[in-house]
Amino acid sequence: MNQSGVRFEMAIQTFERTMHESKDLILGGQYPGCITQPVAVLFTSESELITMNILVHAANVALLGLTLAPLFVKINPNVNVVLTACLTVYVGCHRSVKPTPPPEMISNKHAMRFPFVGSAMLLLLFLLFKIFSKDLVNAVLSCYFFVLGIVAISATLPPAIKRFLPEHWNNDLIIWRAPYFDSASAEFTRSQIVASIPGTFFCLWYALKKHWLANNIMAIAFCIQGIEMLSLGSFITGAILLVGLFFYDIFWVFFTPVMVSVAKSFDAPVKLLFPTSSAAHPFSMLGLGDIVIPGIFVALALRFDVSRGKKICYFNSAFLGYTMGLTLTIIVMNWFQAAQPALLYIVPGVIGIVAAHCLWNGDVKMLLEYDESKTSSELSGSSSSSPGDEDAKAGTKKDFILESLVLKHAE
């Protein structure tokens, strides 16, 4: 074989080895938010699975880039609000897709009480800022969010760093129990300990300097964890929660000065800050509730799609509704030059488009009967099949994808 032939053969071998490594990472869930192998069997095709995981990886990179970009270039804050919020929802939704539903389930009773509990908390904060010094209240809250921020960031980062760490660091749980309090315990991995190092840095940076970037990194971690860990259980519960908060948002923004006053006084990472060119108003703001609350509904739609084993469609509808609702909020806010209750536009967008799509497809009964507690038991039952069958199925999927990629490259 001549020299050029040897080089060509070596290039083919290198390409195949790279494809095996990168596809193992994608199918194994090594990228943040990737759909993992136990869930992959629910997808209709390998191409759909791999496309989704590549999109999720791209969304993670885009979210990181967009978060850092205002340090170097001017970005229109209106565009930044929409893109950052949508990317955060997209990433959080895909991280919520796991073999079992998210651990925290919201019941109908909790959903109905939520607007009243939220109103009580809002009034309490309003009174605290009226009675005590704003600096004192924010100092106490900063201590609370310092700890909470480290926990959120250390839980958000491991999917991005685990491929650089030994496997047992990612899998072996360390159980810590508080002395004299047996009921107080915590479970974590070594990879979470590693992730807590940058988490501590950003939380310290925020506590000392109140820099907008540290604020946003903590806030995005809160959003992703909220969407990943919370489950509405069913679309009925989701509708109850969103409709209740729809009226909550309208009342506290339009009929009282309470929410706007608290938002301006509350110096904590419970809102995203977007730098502007205006000295009078240096930042545009978006509350985390306008991301997490609709986000858990959009995540429910994605898990519903995955559980059916059909083409992803209702997630696309819910995500489109969220994007349109948030965009309309920005347009109206700029038109009237006044704060707007984002859920006034987001809730009809999300629920309306999903409902219209559901009616069009004739899936109303299936959607209303969907219950994640039942889904959990079904997945547990399916996981009881023999390990050999699962390994064979996983191996067949990987082989099919790798062969397809090599053939496509050859063409």
UniProtKB/TrEMBL annotation:
Subcellular location: Endoplasmic reticulum membrane
TM spans (from-to): 54-73, 111-129, 136-157, 191-208, 229-255, 283-302, 314-336, 342-360
Lipid bilayer topology: Multi-pass membrane protein
Molecular function (Gene Ontology), one example: aspartic endopeptidase activity, intramembrane cleaving
A GO CC term assigned to this protein in UniProt: cytoplasmic side of endoplasmic reticulum membrane
Gene Ontology BP annotations: membrane protein proteolysis; signal peptide processing
Keyword vocabulary terms for this entry: Endoplasmic reticulum, Hydrolase, Membrane, Transmembrane, Transmembrane helix
Ranges where the record places region Disordered: 375-396
Top-rank taxon, per record: Eukaryota
Pfam families: Peptidase_A22B (PF04258)
Start-end of Low complexity biased regions: 376-386
InterPro entries listed in its UniProt record: Peptidase_A22B_SPP (IPR007369), Preselin/SPP (IPR006639)
Similarity comment text for this entry: Belongs to the peptidase A22B family.
Protein name: Signal peptide peptidase
Protein's organism: Ensete ventricosum
Lineage, top ranks: Eukaryota, Viridiplantae, Streptophyta, Embryophyta, Tracheophyta
